[in-house]
Amino acid sequence: MGQQHLAGPVTVALVEDHQVVVDGVRSWFGPPSPVELVAQGSTIESVRGTAADVLMLDLNLNGTLVIDRVAELCGGGQRVIVFSEHEEPETVRAVLDAGASAFIGKGRATRESCLETILEVAADKPSMTPPMAQAIATDEGPHRPQLSDKERAALLFWFQSMSKASVAARMGIKERTVRQYIDRARVKYAAAGRPAPTKEKLLICAIQDGLIRPDEVTVYTSLAARADNTASP
Amino acid sequence: MAAVTEEIEQVAQRYARYTAIGAVMIALLWHTGYDLTVTITGWNDFRWPAVAAASWILYTVIAVVAARALLRTSSGPPRGRELALPVLALDIAVIVACYPKDLIAPIDWGWGSVGWLGVMLLWNRPHGRGELLAFLTANAGIMLAAMAVTGTLDRVSIAKYLMVEVGSITLQLGYLAGCHTLRVRAEDAVLLARRLAADDAWRESARRIHADRLRRYDAIRDVAESLLKQLADGADPGDPRVRADCTAGAMRLRRLITEREDVPDELVSALRERIDAAERRKVLVTAPPFGENLPDLPEGVREDLLRAPILALDGARSRARVTVSAMSTMMSVAVVADNDDLPISPTPIREPSGVVVTYQRQGGEVWVNSIWQGP
Predict the structure, then answer these.
(1) Does the pLDDT value for residue B227 go beyond 70?
(2) Among B159, B168, B211, B308, which residue's CB has the most CB atoms within a 10 Å radius?
(3) Do B367 and A165 touch (CB under 8 A)?
């Protein structure tokens, strides 16, 4: 999953007010998982100041939706993954526009999908979960990214099908190509409407806008060239 | 909203037509009942009766042209403004046909009557009201000039002049304003009726949703009660069956809490019903909240969109996932389920409504996806 470029395990801070969810997530992150839960609390303030690679944020904290706090968290360069049952496309778009790196829907999250998303986000790779695919594919706002028909179809099928393999079968292409379509849509979306608080995100936007070529950037080349989930050097 | 606009348009057209017919009737009755009578009975009192008769005929011809346009299009003729000039000319001709002493007498029918012809010519036309006002002012001016030329500016004549002018202009402008008000009121009434009907529909929907939610809360409460009782009676929380029941209950509760639309979309309602039915069969159903801005679907599309996914859902053995994606001109419904019996088509099926249904079987699951793309 490409996490090996990081020295140790990926560290995660979790903001979640339901103990049962905290316990569930903690069990996902136990060894030998490449992810470590280093802080947890039921409010944003309770984990502030913790140095974690990724902050996982529940949107509904003690009955209040904290969508408007996402921008402030991301503004400081923190990678934020929203972890919520509020999977409505408008909500997903709102948190992505505010700078969140990914959105995991509680209704469909599995250990594997959750870990994959965390590792991708920690490595500043484009990550696309099904709720994000739905939100981006159905975005009709004036500043929406210009997706190609194939990219939009791949997103839609990824949201509605069982796996990327089934998307590939449906579209009559290789699974690797499906990943490329989905990643490309994610990058376009990032370039179209999202702030880029980290250096890597800024690079992705710059490449997308044609300001620099991918082969001028070592880190990006390694991402774009990955054929499957093998590690970057 | 398109329906409302159409209805208002219809009301406006109906009012324009019948008020136009009203204007034609008044002008023709006036022209035959009064103008013709005084022209015939006062034949010997005219200086030049033939000129008066010719004016009457010219009036009639122009009135027929205007009436034809009004009955056909509910508006005055396209050249209404140009036709107003010969009308003012015939006004002058009738004045000239009379002896100066009869200028204010009933025999000089022109100046009191041409106003109605002006109403007909300029009816329901762009700038019609302004043009009519100018026309009536010109008519009054011509008469006043004639009085000045013939020296009929005594107090009695001026009083008569004012009385006739005020009387006829009030009638003509009053008719125009009355018709306009009537039409605006009718359009308001249509809007109001539509709004009331929409309010009623919304209230009824809200009542139905509330009742439906209560029913589902009741059902969940029953399930929760029975689960708690089982646990109290010593059921093992580690038992996969008990755990599956708890998960199913939690999923239903979560969906109830996150669903939030005020007025149910018919497609979503139909899906919810089948999701409920599947859950009663102990199938674990996941369904992200459906969007709020679902497009209006043409006749028959909803049924075609739902048929195959619902079959897949109804035959699910233990788990299913239901998703709806929508844009302004696209709607996609998909079900992924462990349905072993569903016959699947290797190629996409195109329904006459434009819906395309695709099937795929992979790893013990079937994926059924129906998509409608609008024009």
Answers:
(1) yes
(2) B308
(3) no
For A:70-89, CB contacts with B below 8 A are 85-89
Residue of A nearest to B291 (CA): A88
Phi/psi of residue B146, nearest 5 degrees: -60, -40
| Cβ contact, residue pair B367, A166, below 8 Å | yes
| Half-sphere exposure in the Cβ direction for B14 (13 Å, CA) | 11
pLDDT the model gives residue A231: 38
What ipTM goes with this model? 0.73
Q: Note whether B286 contacts A107, CB cutoff 8 Å.
A: yes
C-beta neighbour count of A90 within 10 angstroms: 15
> Chain A residues with CB inside 8 Å of B325's CB?
134, 137-138, 156, 159-160
Mean pLDDT value across chain B: 85
- Rounded to an integer, the average pLDDT of B79-106 is 90
Judge contact between A38 and A50, C-beta under 8 A. yes
Q: What is the pLDDT of residue A153?
A: 92
Residues on chain B touching A18 (C-beta within 8 angstroms): none
The DSSP output letter for B138 is H
Quick check: B264 and B225 in contact, CB under 8 A? Answer: no
Q: A105 to chain B: which residues are within 8 Å by CB? A: 288
The whole-number pLDDT of residue A20 equals 83
Per-residue tokens: B27: 């002008």
Strand A64-65 relative to strand A102-105: parallel, antiparallel, unpaired?
unpaired
Give which of B179, B200, B226 is closest to B74, Cα–Cα. B179
Instruction: Please return the burial class of B285, using the count of CB atoms within 10 Å of its CB with bins 0-12, 13-18 and 19+.
Output: buried
Whole-angstrom CA distances from A46 to A50, A77, B224 are 9, 18, 34
* Interchain proximity A161–B286, CB inside 8 Å: no
The CA distance from A59 to A23, in Å, is: 18
- Contacts (Cβ under 8 Å, ≥6 apart) of B82: none
- The tokens for B220 are 């969940």
CA-nearest of A148, A167, A179 to B369 is: A167
What stretch(es) of chain B map to CATH 3.30.565.10? 236-373
Cα gap B344→B360, rounded to integer Å: 7
pLDDT above 70: residue B259: no
Least Cα distance to A121 among A98, A101, A95 occurs for: A101
Distance from CA of A80 to the nearest CA of B (A): 21
CATH topology of domain A10-224: Rossmann fold (3.40.50)
Mutate to test the interface with A, among B246, B332, B347, B358 (most CBs of A within 10 A): B332
Answer whether A166 sits within 8 Å of B288, measured CB to CB: no
Q: Measure the CA–CA gap between B38 and B294, rounded to whole angstroms.
A: 70
pLDDT, tens digit (0-9, with 9 covering 90-100), for A98-142: 889 999 998 778 889 999 999 999 988 888 999 999 998 888 877
> pTM here?
0.56
CATH topology (fold) of B236-373: Heat Shock Protein 90 (3.30.565)
Chain A contact present for B365, CB below 8 A: yes
User: Which residue in chain B has the smallest CA separation from A133?
Assistant: B325
CB-CB under 8 Å, B332 with A107:
no
Does pLDDT of A194 surpass 60?
no
